[in-house]
Amino acid sequence: MSDTDNELSITRYIDAPPALVWDVMANRQEEWWCPRPWRVEIDEQDRRPGGVCRMTMYGPDGEVAPQDGIYLAYDEGRRYASTDAVTRDLRPSGPFMIGIWEIAPEGSGTRYTAIARHWTAETMKQHEEMGFTDGWGACADQLAEICEREKV
Questions:
Q1: Where is the Activator of Hsp90 ATPase homologue 1/2-like C-terminal domain positioned along the sequence (predicted)?
Q2: Which is more confident, 92 or 135?
Q3: Is the pTM higher than 0.85?
Q4: C-alpha 9 chain-centroid distance
């Protein structure tokens, strides 16, 4: 099995400095996390490995999609990772994926990468069919739009 088996990813070059991209990525998720017209509300975040990561996504037709999990990694200024396989107090849950969001300096801007690692090829395919590329791509575009608009 290779490192990228059962993995989907999106990457974007963002023409803004890494510090700004990180600030928006980590501290302003409600502005970019869901593809419009969906929106997200952050319910609770304890930004450390093992810390709670809970949010609720709301759709334009009244859909409500709670996301409950924990952080697996939180490396300030570089990346964070979370999973829905474990919830608060280390309670097992029905695993779907591990999400990893990371940035790296690139030229005069920043390389943003979002990765979804799945336990099985079946769940990866399900995520892909749910619209991973369009959805996560729209989120990356929204993040880039905010950062590029606000760069000095």
A1: 15-147
A2: 135
A3: yes
A4: 10
